[in-house]
From TrEMBL:
The lineage of its organism: Eukaryota, Viridiplantae, Streptophyta, Embryophyta, Tracheophyta. Belongs to the Glu/Leu/Phe/Val dehydrogenases family. It comes from Rhynchospora breviuscula. This is Glutamate/phenylalanine/leucine/valine/L-tryptophan dehydrogenase C-terminal domain-containing protein. GO terms for biological process: amino acid metabolic process. Keywords: NAD, Oxidoreductase. GO terms for molecular function: oxidoreductase activity, acting on the CH-NH2 group of donors, NAD or NADP as acceptor. PANTHER family: LEUCINE DEHYDROGENASE, VALINE DEHYDROGENASE.
Amino acid sequence: MAHDQAATTGADRHAVFDRLEGHEQVVHCSDPASGLRAIIAVHSTALGPALGGTRFHAYPDEQAALEDVLALSRGMTYKNALAGLDHGGGKAVILGDPRTDKSEELLRAYGRFVQSLGGRYVTACDVGTFSEDMDLVARECDFATGRTVEHGGAGDSSVLTAYGVHQGMRAAAEAVWGEPTLAGRTVGVAGVGKVGRHLVRHLLEGGAQVVVTDVWRPSVEAITAAHPEVRVVPDTDALVGSALDVYAPCALGGAVDAQVADALSARVVCGAANNQLADPAAGARLRERGITYAPDYCVNSGGVIQVADELDGFSFERAQRRAAGIFATTREVLRVATADEVAPEVAADRVAEARIAGVSRLGAIRVRR
């Protein structure tokens, strides 16, 4: 019996490592006094310290939180590589409702856990966290970016995230309609919070017609107050079923499944959300229907470009120039997809993996001193 228990225990340990899906390190963080429950995932440091935001979200259970942080951190490895940054991929999630559970004590406790990793992971804002939160994290930690301008940071990274998504959308428009503009096109934006609201502004300034939806009513009210010309629909199903040229998922991941792909009239899917494709079948169905998908981690890298620039002494103009390069990167990804006859998400992976392999190889080159 003891032998069977030992064998089972060994198998369980092996299963735990299998679930890490190639990650270098996954840390569970608990501080009962503040109520902190968090998971930090470091996917890769091949290109440099792992960089990625902290998501504060009311997950249904711990397994959902783990699955999310593993997918998000892996995505950051590819995003940072494709953005040309000298950073690997990491991400953190804090379990709870940010509207009721967030506190100074909790954020500072979280900062101590980030500090304990010694710089292997550099954090920033994500869904449910803001620059002011990073100021609190930074009181316990040397590895927090996305801080407020008052504290020497870059401020809200959603500004350049939205800017980059717009650049990627312009490149997708060029691939589909021959011109890098959204003028006269109808764009449906699902989620008009931190990033979506800035994207709406870029689209309107570029001459697009915009339709929006959001589960958080105050976000919708803020958009319509700022931009009365925006049309509002009650939910995502109504938005997906609308006559659109572009569908822009800008909320949580998994927004595009095979059912959504079948329902879309849009010719382009390009938004700010991470991990937009619910599964490989969704991407395959988009391709079958002739819908161009601009890979999320390609187009939404403006925010990470902004916070990475903060590490060198922030210059908004420099970061924006770099984020403008998302247009050329998206164009290249779509070119490779066409040339190799593969889905855009496969092409994006290939371009990112080529840089990871090439740059990380430099670590094997030794110079005699």
